[in-house]
Amino acid sequence: MTRIDEKLLEERLTALESVRPWTPRLISKLESHIRSASDTELLRINPLRFAADKSLGELETIDFAAETGGIGGRRTLFNSAEA
Known about the structure:
The protein is mostly helical. It is 60% helix and 0% strand.
């Protein structure tokens, strides 16, 4: 597992939170997933599977993926490819 840059993670999560008022659980579950998932799991994250695995709403998770894909200069925060 890669070491997490805590300052950068906090900056990125704050930026994600400012896009729109997401369900608070979505951001906290994303942070938890970032901290616990392998690098491969993070690169292959799928919004529908993430929603199902974390008991989140599919529509909000899809909106989140679509609206936040470019934050941090990486279009693949969420990826439609199956793991």
